[in-house]
Specification:
By secondary structure, this protein is an alpha/beta fold. The protein is built from 17 helices and 14 strands. The chain has a six-stranded mixed β-sheet with strand order 1-2-10-7-8-9, with helices on both faces. A four-stranded parallel β-sheet has the order 5-4-3-6, with helices on both faces. β12 and β13 form a beta hairpin. α3 crosses α8 and α12 crosses α13. It is globular.
Length: 421
Amino acid sequence: MKAESQTYFPNMDDIKKAAETIKKVSDITPLGHSLRLSKKFSANVFFKREDLQQVRSYKIRGAYNKISSLTQAESRNGVVCASAGNHAQGVALSCKLLKIKGSIFMPSPTPNQKIEQVKMFGEDFIEIKMVGDTFDDANQAAMIECEQQGKTFIHPFDDKKVIEGQATIGLEILEQTESPIDYVFIAIGGGGLASGLSTVFKNLSPETKIIGVEPEGAPSMKISIENNENTELEHIEKFVDGAAVKRVGDLNFEICKENLHQVITVPEGKVCETILELYNKDAIVVEPAGALSISALDFYSEKIKDKNVVCVVSGSNNDITRTPEIKERALLYANLKHYFIINFPQRAGALKEFVVEILGENDDITYFQYAKKTNRENGSAVVGVQLKSADDLEPLISKMKKRNFYGDYLNNKPDLFQFLV
């Protein structure tokens, strides 16, 4: 579905009207001071806690504002969306509250936890349809139903009313602080939140620098702004699922390229570090997209000293089954987890020699895959080692080479790594 206009910019009166519309369903979320990060960065760091919304993300704002704007005829015909995440939950709750029938298309591999959440929020007012293997499959099926049955498509970001709904976060932030805000860090997926919030600040606090943050593996807004045209990426890393899109919205691109001070990317491993730190040190549970804005602070550490900084925590719909992968990615990013091909001599005592004489006393074997083969002098094993310090890597490799155990290092060979581990 194409955007409505290439020249649309949100109007402050419409944003204020949206704030009135959604106040019955959207909480005014806290703007909390982070003592830990304020001390770490010598700044005043605040979290805008959109993860505390009823649907655990800001998406209720745009979805409800859009569906509320439908005519009676459009409401009778019903609505359609394609989503396996936060947008689906926002649409589902909006349908129930407004008593409008909705069809929500999800790809078949969607985790059951997400399906159950959408059912809980939408109850009898929504129908979930599992279609295809990818989001694109589900989205195409949703568009076909819209065309055949005259239903309204609720876009997750490339829509005027959705943008105006998300913009209300900006109004709340400015109402919740008396001091001027120097920086706002905000995650970018399709760009609905960034385009709405940046418009509010451009009108009401133009000195504030709005920094868009994308995952390193899905820099669709950054590349589009660099190209000065909305650019679809051929391939993306989907780990930060709430902010990984191949193409941002056309409306969103036009607004963001004018309003954002900068768009930066953050490695997925850094996002995982942030998720674990927030859980372990602050008792805050966030999804990968919700951690993006906070992850960016390390890359702005010098610029934000003595500044007032707001990070929008966009959501907390994290699947607990992803925790092992999050931990793994965080350790790899911190250079504490390393995978090798180790050549073990085919003799008794070789493994003991490796463990006792090569590994350091603080090193831990976390992965071991080995098949003994006859009639060979050496047998190869894939071994994962977790270190106490990143500085221990080079001494470990040196000892392996000196004793002829070293075969290969896999961390910097992604294709081989994916195949073997």
